[in-house]
Amino acid sequence: MSELTDSNDLGYSGGPTKQRVGPVEICIPPDPRLARVVRLAASAVAAQIGFDVDLIDDVKLVVSEVLLALVEQGDGGRVTVTLTGEDAAVMVSGVAAASSFDPSDPGFVLSRQVLEGVASSHQVSFEGGQIRLSAVVSDITS
Amino acid sequence: MNDPDVLTVTVTATGLAAAGEIDTSTVSVLTVALESHMLDSSEGDVVLNMAAVEFIDSSGLRVLIDAHRTTAQAGRLLVISEPSIVVRRLLEVSGLHTHLHVVP
Predict the structure, then answer these.
(1) For residue A126, how far is the Cα from the chain centroid?
(2) Which pLDDT tens digit goes with each residue over A34-77?
(3) Residues of chain B neighbouring A35 (CB-CB closer than 8 A)
(4) Are A116 and A110 in contact (CB under 8 A)?
(5) CA distance B53 to chain A (A)
(6) How confident is the model at residue A87 (pLDDT cuts 50, 70, 90)?
């Protein structure tokens, strides 16, 4: 009888793990309907590193806010989102081309307010005609 | 290519009930339903049941804020009833749970 020595053999990690998942890079046109696709991918990355349902919901929310901000502030071109799961944390980073950036836009302010409440850290930059927005959701219990 | 199953808003005996996911691609469904309901019922609270909402982001919050303002201007109240865990979470992290009228 074979003995299982690695719980990942069963595809179940049994909680937050140190394994790295990704980076998964998704490049999409600025179509709001595609936000669901990115949320699904983010859910999978978060589940792979053992996040529970509440943390997966937080990751989905962060992804949605990052996408929303980039689509609204961007030039209407493609948006690239990169998802990485590592060390009980999921990092979501996005980039979009933009000719200008208005950090005082009410919609953007609300998105940042949400990111501040959900993510353990987040960063915004506008340089070289690109807006970059990244956020990390951590499992602080691990 | 709208997916009608992603978000549905139905008229109930007490007001409106939203079910599904509220994001930028679906939020217009909620906006239209709230506007229609406010026109159809010219007085009393506007009750929005959010027990079956599985996802909401700040695009949904914006609609709730706008509806809150519109109803207040008309001397009415927007009541968010039975918010699901994800709705409650978003209201709390945004600080809006103290501004909007939420009932368990």
Answers:
(1) 19
(2) 999 999 999 999 999 999 999 999 999 999 999 999 999 999 99
(3) 23-25
(4) no
(5) 12
(6) confident
Q: Which of A39, A28, A133 is nearest to A78 (CA)?
A: A28
Closest Cα in chain B to A113: B94
d(CA A122, CA A57): 17
Cα dihedral sign, A21-A25-A28-A31: positive
Q: Judge whether residue B55 has pLDDT over 50.
A: yes
Size of interface A-B (CB pairs under 8 A): 63
**pLDDT tens column, B11-47:** 998 899 999 999 999 999 999 999 999 888 878 899 9
Please tell me whether residue A79 adopts helix, strand or coil conformation: strand
Which residue in A37, A55, A60 has the most chain B C-beta atoms within 10 A of its own C-beta, making it the best mutation to test that interface?
A60
Beta strands in chain B (DSSP E): 7-11, 16-22, 46-56, 78-81, 101-103
The tens digit of pLDDT for each residue in A71-82 reads: 999 999 999 999
Q: What are phi and psi of A50, to 5 degrees?
A: 90, 15
- The better pLDDT of the pair A21, A95 is held by A95
Determine whether the interchain pair A60/B23 forms a contact, defined as Cβ–Cβ distance below 8 Å.
Answer: no
Are B21 and B27 within 8 A, CB to CB? no
H-run or E-run covering A23: strand A21-28
